[in-house]
Each structure stands twice: as structure tokens, then as C-alpha cells.
Specification:
By secondary structure, the protein is mainly α. The protein has a domain at 27-113: de novo design (two linked rop proteins) (Up-down Bundle). Helix content is 65%, strand content 0%. Helix 2 runs antiparallel to helix 3. The N and C termini lie far apart (51 Å). 17% of the residues are buried. The model has no long low-confidence stretch (mean pLDDT 85).
């Protein structure tokens, strides 16, 4: 595939937009990504969990809900940014992963502090 030459200074703006659209990678479509769908469930479940089991004015509620939200939103933002920058996309996905790891630790802390067993993924209870 031959690289396209840069546009001349006389190129009309609408033609510049059309040529630019052809060179951008596809982006968006994050709603169809399994990771986005799963983080949406995690976010909704976290909000429900916090409303049900953690005192309303606890700082932990804000931390857990924000970590779940950050995981979801950074996947969406990374997907949208993928058209222009793989580096930005990767950075945002890493932020999402870190947020979800933080949320997992909060859930583990809750279980430990309330003397609940943490189930293994292959446990019949899980």
C-alpha cells in the first residue's frame, strides 16, 4: 500500500476531512466490547452493594463506586481514543485495570473485615 502524499495548502477543508477520515483507525464501538459490558455489570452491582451493605456516609462508598465507574469510563474513553493514538488507548485501558484491581481489593477487605469467606472461582457457592 502506497502512502498518501500530504494535502496541499490549497486543499478545501471538506476534502481534508474526507481524507483524514480515511486514515484514522476505527474507534468507538465500545458498547459491543465484552470488557465494557462486564464493567457495566460490575459498576451496577457495586452501587447496589454499597447501598445495601455499607453505611451511606462511609468514605468507602465513594471509593468503591468511583473505582467501578473509572474502570467502565476509561474503557469507553480508550476505545474512542483508539482512532488517533494507540498509546492513549493503552494508557486508559491500564487506568481501567488499575481501578478495577483497587475495587477488587476493597471487596476482599470487606469480606475479611466482616469474617466472610472468599469463594474460589470454581466453588459451588460462587
Amino acid at each position: 500500500m502506497k502512502p498518501t502524499p500530504p494535502p496541499s495548502p490549497d486543499t478545501p477543508p471538506d476534502e481534508l476531512m474526507r481524507s483524514r477520515d480515511k486514515t484514522l483507525r476505527p474507534s468507538g464501538g465500545y458498547r459491543h466490547l465484552k470488557c465494557f459490558q462486564i464493567t457495566t455489570i460490575i459498576y451496577d452491582a457495586t452501587v447496589y452493594f454499597c447501598e445495601r451493605f455499607i453505611p451511606k456516609h462511609s468514605r468507602l462508598v465513594d471509593q468503591m463506586v468511583q473505582a467501578a465507574r473509572s474502570g467502565r469510563q476509561n474503557i469507553a474513553e480508550g476505545s474512542r481514543a483508539s482512532a488517533t493514538s494507540s498509546q492513549t488507548e493503552l494508557r486508559l485501558v491500564n487506568v481501567a485495570r488499575a481501578s478495577l484491581d483497587e475495587l477488587l481489593l476493597d471487596y476482599e477487605d470487606y469480606l475479611r473485615q466482616h469474617h466472610f469467606a472468599q469463594w474460589k472461582s470454581d466453588s459451588p457457592d460462587a
